[in-house]
DNA sequence: AGCCACATTGGAAACGTTTCCAACACCTAT
DNA sequence: ATAGGTGTTGGAAACGTTTCCAATGTGGCT
């Protein structure tokens, strides 16, 4: 049970200096065929592997990327993280994960910790990209960093969804079906600039399309039962014929709640979600929603960071209009007597289609 | 933009040796009040922080735990990982994540990589805990490791659900409602010993409760459309009145598919899931399922590994019977004309209740 | 005065790498 | 034969820590 062999052991066994071993095994510098032979043999016999620690100390790089997301409970982030991890693995980098739980303090603390851990780069979602103590720290160290789901800004690139464009698409869909009074439903509105972007885009779109200004249905914090809170909100807003929820989970909850209040969906209330999680297709009626591609975002963000590290060309970001596609579904129809849409899916742009695997 | 200050810089500024700085800042060994004062001042002025790299090299510990799960697309694993990460953060450890994508080869490779990265411990789900090349590697290095969702074995502890017990509970529920011919629905059966345990427990329970031996409805690989594959399976098994799905997502898909075939749920077909994901409560009828507590499992596994590292007492695992609770729901009722259950939830044991936050 | 115990301190080794550089051997063109 | 090149090689420094150990200083005791 001896500790793993070091380069010194190999050198000894191959009867040469450690510098030579390093050169041979790393394939740089010169070495005679015979020496190479001996070194390889010795390394193989001992089962030698370089210690990343010694290496990191020397090279000042850890082959490690930090990743901070609000929560993995949101399947969108779970998919992003998995895709990023997969991409990084391909390039032999490791991913260190931290969750900020939508808390700006934790967020900053996590960034600080990861920075001190000497990560080579970061992939982060912050609650507000325009003013974030954590991002300031990152910029101060000028470490490769890519945002996800945040508005790009302050010199940091971001892979995200065109929230404003998507909100317009939703507004147009509501308008097409003749809705006038609709609402925007959000959870933790204050802590997510994504949500705010969607809301602002939606307000602009609605007013500009001749609908009334959408109400904001906001759930501050999820203390207690989400369904109850929703019930209260919906009851207070009986005049609305449509609701745009800032994510699919909320949308599903809203459908459930509406039914509980004796309303039919979409007859009494139309509902549109955001994200395109696959469960939206399991309910009756199908959930109309904005389909996004977390996998492409995760992969893209990872490549962007790695490119900065390796000097490769940064991957090109898709056209904003390709970052989402609207999926119609039975949950959206004209207000009034039930006349459900058939829920046929709009085909998303092929290059950006999401392979759903579970 | 000079590089971060090192202990040497602090020593110089405080006009003392680096050994002294190390002692003072780490609070071990003695130092005069005056020296302490100077060192603290110097460190503060420079904004000094220890480099974990140098430290690790010296101490042979990285304060890093590897975590390998099949996929984050499964919300159960996403929650487990998040809970583990949170617990580790509390003790100032980092989590390195890898996904095996249900592939035993990738699984082993990931373990190998993490081991060479010098993680201090591992939290792993493998596809077969009884014969796993990766686990052998771990044991050979005798590194702290805790399994999740695997049967404990070969000396490795595991936090998991009592799959067999849960399967019995499901069988009893079906039996109580008078079902005789039921099936077990699984995806990637071969690659998950969890699924197999549930199936075996279910078979044993059914036969022992006087029901017929359940059919195995298996989806090998999800090439193509899950709903279509399911449609085929359900069509081939028209005689069944109930289906126990090995996870909630499958259960929801089965509900959807059944409706597509013109069957009512639960009238023509009762369905029970596994996991207790919150979306199960958003559909109509509510999904009957086995509720589990991924958060407790993640937290527990993390504590178990950390305890081995710090020498603390390992946290006690809950009684197997407390690792799950059966939740009745509208998707399960007596076969025949629709007479839906009201779907009232069974209260899980209080100490093991899951706070759902999203 | 002499001695010992004890607190404080810093030099140096060790952890496992990479890389600079000097040393050396060998070969070839003058 | 000699100078100059080329290809191999290993010693040593550097990366940032911790910790052993020896050296120094201080005080109290007989």
CATH superfamily of the largest domain in chain A: Response regulator
Global geometry of chain A: elongated
Beta-strand percent range of chain A: 5-15%
Mean pLDDT of chain A comes to: 91
- The share of residues in helices of chain A is 40-55%
Q: Which segments of chain A are poorly predicted (pLDDT under 50) over 5 or more consecutive residues? A: 339-358
How would you name the oligomeric state of the polypeptide chains in this document?
Answer: homodimer
In N-to-C order, the SSE pattern of chain A is HHHHEHEHEHEEHEHEHEHEEHE
What's the CATH first level of the largest domain in chain A? Alpha Beta
Task: Give a quick account of the main beta sheet of chain A: strands, pairing sense, barrel closure.
Answer: 5 strands, parallel
Number of strands of chain A: 11
Structural class of chain A: alpha/beta
CATH architecture verdict of the largest domain in chain A:
3-Layer(aba) Sandwich
Distance between the termini of chain A: 40 Å
The CATH topology of the largest domain in chain A is Rossmann fold
Largest interface: A-B, 54 and 55 residues
Number of helices of chain A: 12
Can you describe this structure?
Two copies of one chain form a homodimer. Chain A is an alpha/beta fold and 358 residues long. Chain A has three domains: 7-50, 434 Repressor (Amino-terminal Domain); 62-160 and 296-318, Response regulator (Rossmann fold); 163-288 and 328-352, Response regulator (Rossmann fold). The first copy, chain A, is built from twelve helices and eleven strands. In chain A, strands 2-1-3-4-5 form a five-stranded parallel beta sheet, sandwiched between helices. In chain A, helix 1 (7-14) packs across helix 3 (33-46), helix 2 (18-26) packs across helix 3 (33-46) and helix 10 packs across helix 11. Chain A is elongated, with a radius of gyration of 26 Å. Chain A binds a DNA duplex (30 and 30 nucleotides) through residues 6-8, 11, 16-20, 22-23, 26, 28-32, 35, 50-60.
């Amino acid at each position: 049970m001896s500790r793993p062999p070091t380069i010194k052991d190999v050198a000894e066994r191959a009867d040469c200096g450690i510098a030579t071993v390093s050169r041979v095994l790393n394939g740089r510098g010169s070495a005679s065929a015979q020496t190479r032979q001996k070194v390889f043999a010795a390394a193989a016999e001992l089962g030698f592997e370089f210690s990343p620690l010694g290496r990191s100390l020397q090279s000042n790089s850890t082959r490690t990327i930090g990743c901070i997301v609000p929560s993995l409970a949101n399947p969108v982030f779970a998919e992003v993280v998995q895709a990023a991890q997969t991409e990084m693995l391909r390039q032999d980098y490791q991913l260190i994960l931290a969750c900020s739980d939508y808390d700006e303090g934790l967020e900053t603390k996590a960034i600080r910790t990861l920075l001190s851990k000497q990560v080579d780069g970061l992939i982060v979602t912050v609650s507000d990209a325009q003013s974030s103590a954590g991002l300031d720290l990152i910029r101060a160290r000028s470490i490769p960093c890519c945002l996800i789901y945040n508005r790009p800004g302050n010199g940091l690139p971001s892979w995200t969804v065109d929230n404003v464009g998507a909100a317009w698409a939703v507004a147009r869909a509501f308008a097409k079906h003749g809705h006038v009074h609709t609402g925007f439903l959000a959870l933790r509105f204050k802590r997510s600039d994504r949500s705010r972007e969607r809301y602002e885009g939606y307000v602009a779109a609605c007013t500009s399309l001749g609908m009334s200004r959408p109400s904001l249905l906001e759930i501050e914090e999820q203390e207690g039962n989400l369904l109850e809170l929703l019930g209260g909100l919906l009851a207070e807003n009986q005049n609305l014929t449509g609701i745009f929820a800032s994510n699919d989970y909320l949308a599903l909850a809203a459908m459930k709640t509406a039914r509980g209040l004796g309303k039919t969906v979409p007859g009494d209330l139309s509902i549109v979600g955001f994200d395109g999680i696959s469960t939206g297709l399991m309910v009756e009626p199908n959930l109309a929603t904005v389909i996004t591609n977390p996998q492409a975002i995760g992969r893209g963000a990872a490549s962007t960071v790695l490119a900065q590290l390796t000097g490769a060309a940064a991957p090109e970001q898709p056209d904003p209009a390709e970052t989402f596609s609207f999926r119609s579904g039975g949950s959206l129809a004209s207000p009034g007597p039930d006349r459900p849409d058939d829920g046929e899916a709009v085909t998303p742009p092929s290059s950006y289609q999401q392979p759903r695997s579970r």
